[in-house]
Please model this.
Amino acid sequence: MEWRAEGILLSVRKHGESSAIIETLTAEHGRHSGLIHGGLGRRFTATLQPGNQLALTWRGRLPENLGTYSTAELIRSRVGMALEDREALAILDSTRALLTSLLPERAAMPDLYAGTQAMLDALGDADARRLGYAKWELLLLSELGLALDLRRCAVTGAQKGLAWVSPKSGRAVTAEAGREYADRLLPLPAFLTTQGLVPDRAALADALTMTGWFLETWAIQNGPDRPIPAARDRLLALLRKA
Model:
C-alpha cells in the first residue's frame, strides 16, 4: 500500500542507530506514524523539524503496519518563526502535544488539518497567532465531538452580551443571565464572540483557561488516560506571567 500527501511534522523519535520514527498530521490520513531510514542523519536535519510542512510518501505492506516514509521533502519551514519568539514556540509545542495526545491514529480530519496549517502559518504575527490559537483549541474540541456553543445564550437565546460558558453544557450565557451563578461559570473572553477584537496575552490566557477546562474534563477524562500535556501548561504559565 502507498499514499502521497502533504503533512505537518508533529514529532521525531530515535529508532536504532540512525533511523527515526516520525509522526505527522495529514488531511486524508490524520495522525500517522512511520519509519524514516537515516532520519537522524545530516540530510534530514533541516527537514525533520517539528511544525515543518512536508511532502510525504508512505509505504506499508498492510494499512495497519507502521510502514516507512520513503519520501519526506521540505515544503515550508516554520521552525524559524517559532525560535525567534518564546510565545510562538510555546504555541507550536502546545499544538503538537495536544494533537499527539488526543487525536486517534489514522482518522481523517481535513478541517482540523486545514485549521492547524493556517494557525501555524501565522506564528510570526503576534495578533494573528493568539486569535488563531484560541480558535484552534475550539476547533480541536469540535473535531473530538465536544463542540462548544458560543453563538447565543443558553438561557435567553441572546447573541449579544455573552460573558460566561456553562461547564456542564459548554453553552454560552449572557452576563445578565449568569449573574447569580457566576461562581459556577467559566469566563468567556469577548474576542471569541465579537469580530474585530484581538486578544492580548491576558485575554488569550483567559480563553485557554476556559477551553482547558473542557480539554481536561471532557477530552482527557473521556479519552486517553493521561494528564493534559505539560507543553500546554507551560504555554498558559507563560501567558499568565507576561
